[in-house]
TrEMBL record:
<feature type="binding site">
    <location>
        <position position="171"/>
    </location>
    <ligand>
        <name>substrate</name>
    </ligand>
</feature>
<dbReference type="InterPro" id="IPR001360">
    <property type="entry name" value="Glyco_hydro_1"/>
</dbReference>
<comment type="similarity">
    <text>Belongs to the glycosyl hydrolase 1 family.</text>
</comment>
<keyword id="KW-0326">Glycosidase</keyword>
<keyword id="KW-0378">Hydrolase</keyword>
<feature type="active site" description="Proton donor">
    <location>
        <position position="172"/>
    </location>
</feature>
<dbReference type="InterPro" id="IPR018120">
    <property type="entry name" value="Glyco_hydro_1_AS"/>
</dbReference>
<dbReference type="GO" id="GO:0008422">
    <property type="term" value="F:beta-glucosidase activity"/>
</dbReference>
<feature type="binding site">
    <location>
        <position position="399"/>
    </location>
    <ligand>
        <name>substrate</name>
    </ligand>
</feature>
<dbReference type="GO" id="GO:0030245">
    <property type="term" value="P:cellulose catabolic process"/>
</dbReference>
<feature type="binding site">
    <location>
        <position position="127"/>
    </location>
    <ligand>
        <name>substrate</name>
    </ligand>
</feature>
<keyword id="KW-0624">Polysaccharide degradation</keyword>
<feature type="binding site">
    <location>
        <position position="26"/>
    </location>
    <ligand>
        <name>substrate</name>
    </ligand>
</feature>
<keyword id="KW-0136">Cellulose degradation</keyword>
<feature type="binding site">
    <location>
        <position position="300"/>
    </location>
    <ligand>
        <name>substrate</name>
    </ligand>
</feature>
<feature type="active site" description="Nucleophile">
    <location>
        <position position="353"/>
    </location>
</feature>
<dbReference type="Pfam" id="PF00232">
    <property type="entry name" value="Glyco_hydro_1"/>
</dbReference>
Length: 451
């Protein structure tokens, strides 16, 4: 395909990692193929009221059967790396007990395909699809699930640890806890603040146990975690708005960072949680507070904090996405610079997700998505500012390679730089994919001139 005429200037470091990201449940489909067990998302989708368009993940992008084509697309874009997740219930159908060789076989083939194409694999162990068998035992409310997770991490590291560049334990534990147990937008669909906070502790514990188990194996992979992060801005200068923003930052960002980097929960959030504070056992923080090799940071928007009724809306000077999320690139450097100041031991950072949903705009075989290109460009310019200010950022993964199952929004929200026609499973590069390809190619040209 001929690229639209883009002007670009890729002034990132020559060894910066350019990637795309997906997750297992959102793209794989093949929900019961080759011995895969059900996950809590298979279960959650059975209640049609949970998903806006009543859809589910049984087929999704059929990536399980089309991974070769999808890797081929990535190769054609020239990406350096691919961030994907493994479906725990594919490799251990019940979440405990026997391993499923056919399930491991899929990831083995995927890794081969990627490595053959020179695309470096970045794997996430848990992107929300808990085996239903573990949910039946209490899921993340059951402390034992953290130990089951460590067993799973150990096995993945043992089998694949030398072929994966980076392994993240969790994707966005904030979402698992708050959307899964706080407001029931996500599986398992519980509404209970106290439980959501206990779950967040078990997630952090499971991260620590998994880190330990994987370190024990050794292996070349860098080990870390992926958090969704934002700055929290008060809507006005009022005392109430400022207090709200401070608490919001503490309960969402510091809540996951402080245990890992400082070995305790943030005081302000603990106090605010009061009787809902989690049960923590002696030694838990020693398990959680371990050196991580990288921090994955997912950035989509800032948190806008207004204590007024009705709340003062965000200015949204750069518009909002199809998700209704305010576009605010300025928040990215603000966040990263703040993290660097707050956590002196901050390891190298990867932006493991960033991107936007916009409506389907197929026109004569072309998909024009200028808003997505503008979104990515503005966030990359902002990211460069953070790097110029001294934040050690090593890579950027655009969310997402493909239009896919957007959780409780079903297929109605499209995040892909590659369009998927779900009736035919046909993939079409959107203008944003063509732009990304040229952007990466500009770096490659510059590197060739240098050497
Ligand atoms: C992330 N929030 O989800 C996930 O990692 C992806 O699987 C998902 O497709 C992508 O972002 C787009 O939604 C989030 O409400 C979902 O704050 C919700 C929130 C944040 C991230």
């Amino acid at each position: 395909t001929k690229s639209p005429n883009f002007d670009f200037n890729n002034d990132f470091p020559s060894d910066f990692t350019w990637g795309v990201a997906t997750s297992s449940f959102q793209i794989e489909g093949a929900h019961d193929v080759d011995g895969k067990g059900p996950s809590i998302w298979d279960t959650f989708c059975k209640d049609k009221a949970n998903i806006k368009d009543g859809s589910d993940g049984t087929v999704a992008c059929d990536h399980y059967h089309r991974y070769r084509e999808d890797v081929e697309i990535m190769a054609s874009l020239g990406v350096d790396a691919y961030r994907f997740s493994m479906a725990w219930a594919r490799v251990q159908p019940d979440g405990k007990g026997a391993w499923n060789e056919a399930g491991f076989g899929f990831y083995d083939r995927l890794l081969d395909e990627l490595l053959d194409r020179g695309i470096r694999p970045h794997a996430t162990l848990y992107h929300w699809d808990l085996p239903q068998g573990l949910q039946d035992d209490g899921g993340w409310m059951n402390r034992d699930t953290a130990h089951r997770f460590a067993d799973y991490a150990h096995e993945v590291a043992r089998r694949f640890g030398n072929r994966i560049e980076a392994i993240a334990t969790h994707n966005e534990p904030w979402c698992t806890a708050n959307l899964g147990y706080g407001n029931a937008q996500f599986a398992p669909g519980v509404v209970d603040l106290k439980q959501s906070i206990q779950v967040s502790h078990h997630l952090l514990l499971s991260h620590g146990l998994a880190m330990r188990a994987m370190r024990e194996v050794g292996g070349a992979a860098q080990l870390g975690i992926v958090l969704n992060q934002w700055t929290a801005d008060p809507a006005t200068g009022s005392e109430a708005d400022r207090a709200m923003a401070e608490f919001e930052y503490a309960r969402s960002v510091q809540w996951f960072m402080d245990p890992i980097f400082k070995g305790h929960y943030p005081e302000l959030a603990l106090r605010g949680h009061g009787a809902n504070a989690p049960q923590v056992r002696d030694g838990d923080f020693d398990i959680i507070k371990q050196k991580i090799d990288f921090l994955g940071s997912n950035y989509y928007f800032r948190s806008w904090c207004s204590a007024a009724t009705p709340p003062v809306p965000p200015p949204a000077r750069h518009g909002v996405t199809d998700m209704g999320w305010e576009i605010f690139p300025e928040g990215l450097p603000e966040l990263l610079i703040k993290l660097k100041a707050e956590y002196p031991d901050l390891p190298p950072v990867y932006i493991t997700e960033n991107g936007m949903a916009n409506p389907d705009l197929v026109e004569n075989g072309r998909v024009h998505d200028p808003a997505r290109i503008a979104y990515v460009r503005s966030h990359l310019a902002a990211l460069k500012e953070a790097m110029d200010a001294g934040v050690d950022v090593r890579g950027y993964f655009l969310w997402s390679l493909l239009d896919n199952f957007e959780w409780n929004s079903g297929y109605a929200k499209r995040f892909g730089i590659v369009h998927v026609d779900y009736a035919t499973q046909q993939r079409t590069l959107k203008d944003s994919a063509l732009w990304y390809r040229e952007f990466i190619a500009a770096r490659n040209r510059a590197n060739r001139i240098k050497t």
